[in-house]
Amino acid sequence: MSADLTGKVAVVTGSGRGLGRAYAEALAAAGAAVVVNDVEAVAAHETVAQVERAGGRAVAVVAPVGPTETAERLVATAVEAFGRLDVLVANAGVLRDRVLWKTSDEDFDLVVGTHLRGAFTTGRAAAVRLREQGDGGRIVLVGSPAGQHGNFGQTSYAAAKAGIVAMARTWSLELARANVTVNAIVPTAITAMTATIPLYAPVAEAYARGEPLPPVVRRDHALGGPEDVAPLVVWLASDDAADVTGQAIAIGGDRLALYAHPTEVEVAFRDGGWTADAIAEAWRTTFAPHRQASGIVLPPLPEG
To answer: Does 104 participate in catalysis according to the annotation?
Structure first.
């Protein structure tokens, strides 16, 4: 990679495996020192070992994200081990997919607490440190297509991911004067998590065998490996992206895309306000042609 992050220090939550590990390794390859975080000690220390074998610098913090104590410990570790903090990648997450009527309080709280509260507490701790340093910085939050479109069986996950993008846009305003950019990425990749989806099990098996993925998978389904997503994180952490903030950027396989901010697609006015009958008529004549679809729509995968 051409981006030079020499002298920078990054915290990457949920970086024991999968996409998080790819982010940590790519940031380290670009020159950054990395604080690796995961709830599983073996996974976290293996990522550190991988970074060090490649000539990089990394330390591990084994703790679940969500609690303020973890967030503050991550920032403190960056400062104690490497002298400063420049980049936060709030990646940690967990899934408990259930349809609405089968979603328990415990599952909902775990998913929202890890994704949304975890991004909030780590983002807040990073913002405090970055403002104190006075040198600017980067915060990268991790969204999902489910948060942009909704997805069957993912109430808690979609809600958390939608909230993460809204936080990124809000923080981009609040931290602009401190020269801290805040963006959300919307990654898609073949990981152990993806392999559990029946539709993608054959694709994941082919990828594991080292077989080339067909264009419909890499382009229309935006699926490649975690290494296809990591360059976006490195670029957002670099000086080249200093003027990019408040954006939701999708990447996966061969596909790179910019999501629009939510916007009004049609507007109508009625002097004196609206009645239910007037709304019904306006819906039929003005709004119905612009109704928005829910859910992620993808083309069929090739046979075999």
So the answer is: no
Q: What is the pLDDT of residues 84-124, one digit of tens each?
A: 999 999 999 998 999 999 999 999 999 999 999 999 999 99
Name all domains of the chain by residue range, CATH numbers in brackets. Answer: 9-189+225-258 (3.40.50.720)
Are 246 and 174 in contact by the 8 Å Cβ rule? The answer is: no
Q: Which residues contact 23 (CB under 8 A, 6 or more apart)?
A: 12, 15, 89, 91, 229, 230, 233
Of the listed 8, 23, 144, 207, which one is catalytic? 144
DSSP string for 11-64: EETT-SSHHHHHHHHHHHHTT-EEEEEESSHHHHHHHHHHHHHTT--EEEEE--
Q: Which two tokens stand for residue 156?
A: 């808690």
Active site (annotated) includes residue 157: yes
Residue 259 annotated as catalytic: no
Which residue out of 23, 161, 200, 207 is catalytically annotated?
161
**Global pTM?**
0.95
Strand partners, 9: 33
Of the candidates 23, 157, 200, 207, the residue annotated as catalytic is: 157
